[in-house]
Amino acid sequence: MQKEKDTSTERSILEAAKRVFQNKGMDGARMQEIADEARINKAMLHYYFRSKELLFEAVFKKAFALLAPQLNAILNDDSSIEEKIKNFTTNYISFIIKHPYLPNFIIQELNRNPNFIEKLATNNGFPNIQKFKGQVRDEIEKGIIIPIGAEQLFINIMALNIFPFVAKPLIKAFANLDEGAMDALIEARKNEVSNFIINAIKIK
Amino acid sequence: MQKEKDTSTERSILEAAKRVFQNKGMDGARMQEIADEARINKAMLHYYFRSKELLFEAVFKKAFALLAPQLNAILNDDSSIEEKIKNFTTNYISFIIKHPYLPNFIIQELNRNPNFIEKLATNNGFPNIQKFKGQVRDEIEKGIIIPIGAEQLFINIMALNIFPFVAKPLIKAFANLDEGAMDALIEARKNEVSNFIINAIKIK
DNA sequence: TTATGGTTTAACCGTTTGGTTGACAAATTT
DNA sequence: AAATTTGTCAACCAAACGGTTAAACCATAA
Question: Which terminus of chain A has fewer CB atoms gathered within 10 Å of its CB, N or C?
Answer without folding.
Answer: C
